[in-house]
Amino acid sequence: MAPLPPSTAPRPAPRSWWRRNQIAITPWLFLAPGILFFAIYVLIPVGQSFNISLYDWDGLGAAEYVGLRNYEEMYWDDAFYTSLRNNVIWLVLYLLAIPAGLAIALFLNQTVTGIRIYKSLFFFPFVISQVVVGLVFSWFYDPSFGLLNVMLGWVGLGPVNVLGDEDWVTYGIIAAGLWPQTAYCMILYLTGLNAVDPEQIEAGRLDNAKGLRMLWHIILPQLRPATFIAFVVTIIGALRSFDLISIMTQGGPFGESRVLSFYMFEVALSEYGFRMGYGAAIAVVLFLIMLCFITYFLWSMYREEKGR
Description:
The protein is mainly α. It is built from 14 helices and two strands; from the N terminus they run αββααααααααααααα. It has one domain: MetI-like (MetI-like fold, Orthogonal Bundle), CATH 1.10.3720.10.
């Protein structure tokens, strides 16, 4: 049978639009539900906060547009600067959870008798709620029967009212927050240590790398993803610290333990008169501070990955 001339040969049926773009579109279909929920519950509320911060509104009546007046009032508000200062203290000291979590993870990663008991003890603070942590440390700091003052009495020191002292209250609450946060960082590093390449460790031992040299040059570079997550989560936790302050001091004494998130709650939903606009302005400032830190870490990670 003679072949058909080229002009009369049957042409393949054209592929549908879906078949032509299936590989490119499929990932976006899987991401679509997450993107939708993120937009509804995160992006839209952030935009609403920016908008509300431009109004004087009690949450129920008519809102009056005041422009940047809430931000101008914030500039002259001493309570705002007290809260901002405490947030900076939280941010600096809360980062101690990262090296502490790493040290505990390195210890728990060894083959030691009774290691399962040790892991359970160090993991325990992570599974209890912040409310329980706040109550436990409130009892611990109690000037009349707290364990802290009992131990101070053993060495002849007088009782110390940590939560009632303006100079010590913030540090006492941070110490309570470090307990579960260190456990969280420990879990991140334990997961990262399970992914460390044993061949690199063996190669390091052949090059006589031991102790801190092994940790700094071989183990820590492989723990960068865990360190990044630990930094991001710890910074966010320090900036949005609310529950421990609410349980342990309610912002006292004399407002000295306030942070921005708690002050935002006070002015928007507490006895300050339901000033939703001013509370939203504080929330905007807090969001911008978080955004700066997270953007910096994301950019650092992107630059590092791109340089490889």
